[in-house]
Specification:
This protein is an alpha+beta fold. The protein has 25 helices and 25 strands.
Length: 800
């Protein structure tokens, strides 16, 4: 026993030799108990404890700790401890204990019992295992070890178990009342923190006494000791005197997410009589969950700070004090939804240890209203191209003999295959039975004759061509009436002719001349054009026909003509027919009609089925895939929508319609950076992306820009959100009042009520919100927009 004691004693003494110097210069280790900060201080504590003693010596019930747990072996003790935390791991203390001590050996051994009262004083060291192993942080439970050196005073008495008489035991040479010996405590404990001032601790230590007299029995090499197991209550008090407090506040007082960052603006003022030689380190800390983010440091210094203590970029503070504004941005990270902003300016003079100017929480957060975007991006359809009342025109030309207006289909030009085919096609076109919008006739004469004659000639040619066309139509109508067994008047249409007599075709002549192979065509053109007098010009042409046979034979005859243009309305299915055929007989519709059919219904499933038909029939047309993507978005099948859009993009390339829709998909996935790239590319292709860009601008924190982009949608939720975020609550309220009512709309109105301190607006709209969607009750309980209502009975009742 003596050898064990000697080894333990030496180890403890060596530990104290190494620990105490380090502890004396270590950093402070207590939190600010008033402001709940994490700043560490040299702080004192007082601990009062009550416990039990268990003797460990020559007179004991057994050879291990559990054997001594007998009624006569357990005595009470009262202790008092005064200590100070000197680092995150170590603390020093002084303690006093007054206790009774007893032991019993049993009849099979010494047949003795002893009792004693004792008083002890200890100077010791605590070591936090929790902070040593896991690093410092304020925690609920803290495990620690303890040791030290002390003095104990005791007065033992030994009694025979049978007679209960006090006896003189072997080795007792004199009365040992008021004996004082050295002791070494070794043990550990568990500290349970109630708050930043109060704690409860459980502790057990073995007190090893430097001698064998504690139990009144001296026996060989044995060393006496005792266990003291206690429960105590501690109170931490005193903290370093703070320097003059600064006035500090955030603007606004509640932190809010702005785009992907948290803007922080702190306004402060220094007190009067500012120390001219002081340097202040101003470092805000954002705390969230179990994490903290130290923000950029701002330095201030007095007017007479020595050069070696100056800080780069420090703001000079006059002796009379002054104001300042601190601005920064914190990149948002998940978990910051619930956060607090702390700051503790630290003042130092001449490089000495900094002293606090007041640790405090200056803001709560985080308001996440900017995240309440409605993904109502506008999608664009591929144009169907379907039109009604399309005008289709078929043309034919009748050629005339020189100076004649009567029809002569034996004339060579009329017998040409080209002329015959054109007239035949025109006849067949008339005989399709389509509604004729109008028939245009343009008649001409060749320019070698006298002008007045040619004008009349072209008029007569127009009339003969009109009569020809009317005859063709009348014959067709008579045949149709006969086939239908009705009168001609029942099926006949009154034709509208637009006949024009254009006289001499000078332009036609010059163009034909230039297209001819006549060697001197440029000379001829110059001669003709040089004559300003019309009669002389006509004469020159007649002269040229004598010299150049090609003019008479090839150029002039085709100019003697009448061109007939029959304009008809192309027949189309009715909307009802198109809608029916799209599902029952899609093969009877072309792609334009199929795409148009999908616009005739608001059923997204029916639309998607039609677009799938388009994809099957026209797999290389991007519109089917793009429009199928739109229908899939309406059905909230975003994965399919994205696949359709990607296929459309592969077929169409940089098509603005598809680019806009890809941007909308990126926005729905909250990738607003990619969405913006798509929108800008679509805009270059002429697509209106204003509304969609407005949503991106809200996500970016550009609220005024968002208002401008969204302003064309007068009663829109996102427009109201942009107004709210920009602080225009009247405009936001007006916009929401005319918007389609939903849980989102009511909830945003409640937020506006909270921001404008309109309690009725808050409560009424929260009731409507929860009636529309009960899940919003949980959102409102945690939403920092309503922080000032958290304890309001009416608010609590609404959210039950």
């Amino acid at each position: 026993m003596k050898k064990i004691y000697q080894i333990v004693s030496k180890l403890v003494i060596l530990a104290l030799i190494f620990i105490l110097p380090g502890a004396a210069i270590a950093q402070n280790a207590n939190r600010d108990g008033e402001n709940k900060g994490d700043k560490l201080y040299y702080q004192w504590y007082l601990n009062a404890n009550v416990g039990m003693t268990q003797a460990y010596g020559d007179i004991l019930a057994g050879n291990w700790h559990g054997d001594m747990l007998q009624g006569e072996s357990i005595q009470a003790g009262l202790g008092l401890k005064l200590g100070k935390h000197v680092s995150t791991v170590f603390g020093i203390y002084g303690s006093f204990l007054a206790a009774n001590l007893s032991g019993i050996s049993g009849k099979d051994t010494k047949n003795l019992r002893f009792q004693s009262n004792l008083k002890e004083g200890i100077l010791g060291v605590n070591m936090s295992l929790s902070n040593l192993i896991f690093g410092y942080k304020p925690r609920l439970l803290n495990f620690y070890l303890t040791s030290g050196l002390g003095l104990i005073n005791f007065s033992p008495s030994v009694y025979n178990l049978d007679t209960d008489e006090r006896v003189i035991v072997p080795g007792k040479a004199e009365d040992w009342d008021n004996t004082t010996e050295a002791l070494v405590p070794v043990g550990g404990g568990l500290d349970f923190r109630l708050n930043n001032r109060w704690d409860i601790n459980l502790e057990t230590t073995l007190r090893l006494v430097d001698g064998d007299k504690l139990d009144g029995y001296v026996s060989g090499e044995n060393t006496d000791g005792f266990f003291y197991t206690s429960v105590g209550v501690g109170y931490s008090f005193w903290r370093p005197k703070s320097g003059p407090k600064m006035k500090i506040e955030t603007e606004p007082s509640m932190l809010a997410l702005h785009g992907d960052s948290i803007p922080i603006e702190i306004k402060g003022s220094f007190p009067d009589a500012y120390n001219k030689r002081a340097v202040v380190d101003f470092t805000p800390v954002l705390k969230y969950g179990d994490q903290s983010k130290q923000l950029e440091t701002m330095y201030f210094q007095g007017e007479e700070v020595a050069e070696e203590f100056m800080k780069p970029g420090a703001v000079i503070v006059p002796e009379a004090g002054g104001t300042f504004t601190y601005k920064t941005y914190v990149k948002y990270e998940p978990g910051m939804e619930v956060c607090e902003l702390y700051v503790e300016p630290m003042s130092s003079v001449k490089g000495r240890t900094p002293s606090t100017m007041g640790d405090r929480k200056i803001a709560d957060g985080l308001i996440m209203t900017s995240k309440r975007l409605e993904n109502s991006e506008e999608l664009t359809l591929g144009a169907h191209g379907f039109q009604r009342n399309i005008i289709v025109t078929e043309m034919g030309t009748i050629y005339y003999v020189v100076n004649r207006h009567n029809l002569n289909f034996n004339y060579d030009l009329n017998k040409s295959d080209e002329a015959k085919t054109a007239l035949l096609d025109m006849k067949e076109f008339i005989q399709k039975g389509w509604e004729i919008k109008s028939i245009d006739i343009a008649a001409w004469a060749s320019p070698e004759g006298e002008e007045s004659f040619n004008q009349g000639l072209s008029q007569r040619r127009a009339e003969s061509s009109q009569q020809y066309t009317q005859d063709v139509y009348d014959k067709y109508i008579k045949r149709v009436a006969k086939e239908l067994g009705v009168s001609v008047d029942e099926v006949k249409q009154e034709l509208k002719f637009n006949a024009s007599a254009n006289g001499e075709d000078w332009n036609g002549f010059m163009q034909s001349l230039q297209n001819s192979d006549i060697k001197d065509k440029n000379i001829i053109a110059n001669v003709v054009n040089s004559q300003s007098d019309l009669a002389k010009r006509e004469q020159e042409i007649r002269n040229m026909t004598v010299i150049y046979k090609e003019i008479e034979d090839d150029i002039l005859p085709p100019l003697r003509r009448a061109t007939i243009s029959v304009n008809c309305f192309e027949p189309s299915f009715t909307d009802a027919e198109i809608a029916e055929y799209a599902t029952s007989a899609p093969d009877s519709l072309d792609i334009k009609e199929l795409l148009y059919a999908a616009t005739l219904t608001t059923d997204a499933k029916a639309q998607l089925n039609i677009y799938k038909t388009v994809i099957d029939k026209y797999p290389n047309d991007w519109r089917g895939y793009n429009n199928a993507g739109d229908a899939s978005v309406e059905l909230e099948d975003f994965n399919s929508a994205k696949q359709y859009y990607n296929k459309a993009y592969s077929l169409s390339g940089d098509n603005g319609v598809v680019l806009n829709n890809l941007g909308a998909m990126a926005a729905k996935e909250k990738d607003f950076k990619k969405a913006k790239e798509y929108y800008l590319a679509a805009q270059k292709q002429g697509v209106d992306v204003g509304y969609n860009m407005g949503i991106v601008k809200i996500a970016e924190g550009n609220y005024n820009g968002a208002v401008n982009s969204l302003s064309s949608h007068k009663c829109d939720y996102n427009l109201a959100l942009a107004h709210t975020l920009s602080g225009n609550y009247n405009a936001a309220t007006s916009t929401l009042n005319c918007a389609k009512k939903s849980a989102d709309v009511y909830y945003l109105l409640a937020i506006i009520g909270a921001r404008t301190s309109n309690d009725n607006m808050v409560f009424d709209n929260l009731k409507n919100t929860i009636a529309a969607d009960p899940s919003y009750a949980m959102s409102a309980r945690e939403d920092k927009e309503f922080m000032k209502y958290y304890t309001n009975p009416q608010f609590i009742e609404i959210l039950k």
